């Protein structure tokens, strides 16, 4: 289980009938002068590096203990650029390298890590004999705000640090995965939510060309990529928030002193000297403001920088300049239903909805109201917001990409009984526990407490089998036809799977008129 790779030798472990190497650096630690910089090559280590445990997660807010390990058991650190590899036990007689699946975790580019249940991928390794790769990348302000406007000859602030981390990881896979039994020419990159956005964005990133052979995007907010002018506004607002947080604490620390004035610092000094906790706190404030200040936008997202990402991914798909690899793309039945309370980020309030209507062509507004009767009441508003963020952009990617490369479209409709009672139905992320064979986790058990476990788990088995078949360079299922713009065949994953042609056609047509720039 000792493997030599770039950087040195790593020693893995054999657990639950699988081999695992965890916490392997794939780039130098992005700390000190490398904070906000492009990733650089890993620093070699002496001797044999223990690869039994996961590396630190990226700095982020406290997470949901029903989904993630207890926060006390997790170390968060800027030194987080590590990769994990899970593989079947090697057969010395086998000479054929295995397909590789690289999973990009979600979490809105502000939370999540490769040590989440989806990052381990044991169900995929057992069922399909693949080499499964997961990794951490920079999140929040450290990875997904654009501070390049503050670059100086002495200090560089790279655009898109998180996306650059993902490209660096894929290069690491190309150069090292054969040592773990994987085929560097047979890599499938996949992810859900923000991870799905990463997939569609990587497909439009020139420097990622040739680093993966196929892609799966689950519930991707594919259009959540923004111009540098808007990203610069968010950066400026963030620096102001960060300065206020640091200034208030310093005033409290000096309480009672004669000089209670604040210390003025440049944006560069604030960004390079702030603690990770302050960076996370400021990011949370900006995230909370964005849905009302910029309805329909997500402040943590890739940016069109004219360098790493020269074009909007949607336009690259339309024009055929996206990487022409086979693609599975899809969403869940009611993506927007879960986005309430602390995750109320979609345009689903009356004010936000009205802002989108104001921006839309006058002639398109009534058709949109007809497509969502009762808008802005709670249920149609949730569907409107979810379709804006996830479903309609995914249909655009499927339409455009199918002109140039094989594509398959799906919708996940299975909802355990409790989710139906709560009015959530098959909402955003609901497929994940079943897909990754982790219906034993607490939240999955709660979801199925009123029934529907067998149907939910079985849907995950079928979905995983299709993903594995696709990763092995085959059509995902004989009964799932390829997608094209003529009939828009879509697999509906339900208690009994079926194929529908151009599902929700009236909504699609309404959105095409409502968002003509996205419709192409």
> What is the general shape?
globular
Query: What distance separates the N and C termini?
Result: 51 Å
Radius of gyration from the CA trace?
A: 23 Å
Helix run count = 18
Described by strand count, sense and barrel closure, the largest sheet is: 11 strands, mixed
Arithmetic mean of pLDDT: 94
**Portion of residues in helices?**
25-40%
Total number of β-strand segments? 16
Low-confidence stretches: none
Decide which structural class fits the backbone: alpha/beta
Q: What topology, given as strand order, has the largest sheet?
A: 3-4-6-8-7-9-10-13-14-15-16
**How much β-strand is present in the residues?**
15-25%
Write up this protein:
- The protein has 520 residues and is α/β, with parallel strands linked by helices.
- The protein contains 18 helices and 16 strands.
- The chain has helices spanning 117-120, 122-128, 140-144, 161-176, 194-202, 228-253, 267-273, 276-293, 313-319, 350-359, 365-371, 378-402, 417-421, 432-435, 442-447, 453-471, 505-514, 516-519; strands at residues 2-5, 8-11, 13-15, 18-25, 48-50, 82-88, 98-104, 131-135, 182-192, 214-218, 226-227, 303-304, 327-332, 407-412, 489-493, 498-501.
- Strand 15 and strand 16 form a beta hairpin.
């Amino acid at each position: 289980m000792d493997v030599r790779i770039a950087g040195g030798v790593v020693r893995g472990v054999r657990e639950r009938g699988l081999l695992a190497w965890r916490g392997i650096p794939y780039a130098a630690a992005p700390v000190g002068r490398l904070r906000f910089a492009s990733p650089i090559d890993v620093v070699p280590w002496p001797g044999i590096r223990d690869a039994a445990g996961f590396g630190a997660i990226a700095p982020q807010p406290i997470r949901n203990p029903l989904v993630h390990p207890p926060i006390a058991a997790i170390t968060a650190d800027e030194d987080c650029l590590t990769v994990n590899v899970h593989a079947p036990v090697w057969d010395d007689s086998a000479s054929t390298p295995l397909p590789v699946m690289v999973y990009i975790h979600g979490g809105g580019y502000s939370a999540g890590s490769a040590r989440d249940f989806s990052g381990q991928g044991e169900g995929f390794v057992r069922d399909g004999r693949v080499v499964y790769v997961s990794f951490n990348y920079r999140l929040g302000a450290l990875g997904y705000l654009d501070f390049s406007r503050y670059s100086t000859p002495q200090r560089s602030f790279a655009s898109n640090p998180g996306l650059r981390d993902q490209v660096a990881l894929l290069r690491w896979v190309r150069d090292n995965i054969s040592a773990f039994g994987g085929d560097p020419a047979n890599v499938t990159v996949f992810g859900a939510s923000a991870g799905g956005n990463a997939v569609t964005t990587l497909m439009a990133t020139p420097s990622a060309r040739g680093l993966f052979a196929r892609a799966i995007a689950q519930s991707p907010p594919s259009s959540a990529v923004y111009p540098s002018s808007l990203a610069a506004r968010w950066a400026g607002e963030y620096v102001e928030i960060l300065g206020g947080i640091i200034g208030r604490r310093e005033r409290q620390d000096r309480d009672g002193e004669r000089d209670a004035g604040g210390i003025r610092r440049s944006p560069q000094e604030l960004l390079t000297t702030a603690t990770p906790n302050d960076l996370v706190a400021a990011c949370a404030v900006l995230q909370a403001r964005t849905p009302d200040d910029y309805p329909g936008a997500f402040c943590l997202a890739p940016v069109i920088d004219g360098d790493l990402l020269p074009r909007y991914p949607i336009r690259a798909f339309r024009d055929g300049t996206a990487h022409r690899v086979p693609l599975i793309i899809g969403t869940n039945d009611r993506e927007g239903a879960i986005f309430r309370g602390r995750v109320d980020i979609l345009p689903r309030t009356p004010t936000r909805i009205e802002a989108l209507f104001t921006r839309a062509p006058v002639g398109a507004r009534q058709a949109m109201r007809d497509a969502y009767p009762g808008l802005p009441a709670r249920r149609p508003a949730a569907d409107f917001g979810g379709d804006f963020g996830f479903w309609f952009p995914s249909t655009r990617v499927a339409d455009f990409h199918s002109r140039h490369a094989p594509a398959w479209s799906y919708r996940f409709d299975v909802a355990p009984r409790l989710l139906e009672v709560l009015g959530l139905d098959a909402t955003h992320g609901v497929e994940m526990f079943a897909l990754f064979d982790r219906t034993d986790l607490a939240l999955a058990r709660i979801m199925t407490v009123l029934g529907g476990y067998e149907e939910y788990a079985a849907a995950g088995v079928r979905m995983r089998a299709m993903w594995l078949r696709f990763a092995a360079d085959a059509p995902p299922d004989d009964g799932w036809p390829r997608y094209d713009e003529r009939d828009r065949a879509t697999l509906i994953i339900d208690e009994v799977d079926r194929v529908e042609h151009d599902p929700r056609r009236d909504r699609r047509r309404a959105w095409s008129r409502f968002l003509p720039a996205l419709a192409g």
